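Anyone up for a design puzzle?
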């Protein structure tokens, strides 16, 4: 996020632009280029910290509006899927388990009652489960904040059975 000067990161960045940047310029694994929050660092690119840059051989990048759960599950079997979501206090302070809007509503709307998103994450997997009421399973979402957030930097979001809008507006 701090090396892509054309895409505003936490101040309004777009996942498809970040993926294009990574494809064209390479990227680092988190173990080689540890992410520091805005408060911990200057915004200067720190490429001198690692020489272990990776490159994508292929990348499928397409901006999509809502897709069916089955479509996203099919895609996620082959590659991660960047998603936009609503990150309010329910999301920010979540610790463990599966986050459901019924337990702690994280979905937000704007003044026109339209779905509102303010954060991005990456769906890296899913599990089918009827263990959680109102969920057919859950998405495994990687967040950029830190390995100390939620479950080692990941959160499980309910795949809702009764709504076209996902948990936290995913």
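Challenge accepted. My sequence:
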């Amino acid at each position: 996020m701090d090396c892509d000067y054309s895409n505003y990161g936490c101040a309004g960045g777009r996942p498809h632009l970040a993926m294009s940047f990574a494809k064209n310029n390479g990227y680092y694994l988190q173990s080689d280029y540890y992410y520091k929050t805005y408060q911990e660092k200057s915004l200067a690119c720190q490429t001198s910290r690692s020489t272990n840059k990776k490159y994508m051989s292929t990348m499928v990048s397409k901006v999509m509006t809502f897709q069916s759960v089955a479509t996203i599950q099919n895609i996620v079997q082959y590659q991660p899927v960047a998603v936009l979501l609503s990150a309010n206090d329910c999301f920010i302070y979540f610790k463990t388990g599966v986050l459901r809007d019924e337990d702690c509503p994280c979905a937000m709307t704007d003044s026109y009652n339209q779905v509102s998103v303010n954060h991005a994450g990456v769906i890296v997997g899913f599990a089918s489960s009827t263990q959680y009421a109102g969920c057919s399973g859950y998405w495994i979402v990687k967040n950029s904040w830190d390995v100390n957030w939620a479950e080692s930097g990941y959160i499980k979001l309910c795949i809702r059975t009764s709504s076209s809008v996902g948990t936290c507006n995913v």
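A detail worth pointing out: The chain has two domains: 1-59, 69-169.
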